[in-house]
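Hmm, how's this folded?
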Amino acid sequence: MKRNAIVLALGTLLFAVGFLPARSQTIGAQAEGKVTQDGSPFPNAPIVFTNTQTGKIYKTKTDKNGEFRMLGVPYGSYEINVLGDKGEKLSSDKTTLGTDNTTDSNILNVRVSKEAIPDNKFGLPDPAAPKLTKEQLAKIAPITRTSRA
């Protein structure tokens, strides 16, 4: 009798687990491409994919042939930035990765310029911060914290 109860309980448990809704994992898209500058491959360039809806960032680098591949990037709209050696933005494109896209539409050909792209809303390069002299630095009082009793 005890054995029958255990078998019945295990059978019921397995039956119930079989009907639980399965949560599918979003595998995402494969994004690949080639980055060139003046027709030549652009090696070791950092590439930043920023999801325009969520702000989530995905990073990769190009190989010695200027090619890159990212697997499992969630579907959505992205801003793609290619950065230079000093972190300056050399290219900025927008694309959509999704199930409606064919494999060919997720292959990106990015051309970068030698000049950095202005990164503010007015299209002007950011001005350099003013440099303070030693005298000006000496006049700045250090911040001190006072303890409260």
Notes: The radius of gyration is 27 Å. The chain is about 15% helix and 35% strand. The mean pLDDT is 75. The domain at 29-111 is CATH 2.60.40.10 (Immunoglobulin-like).
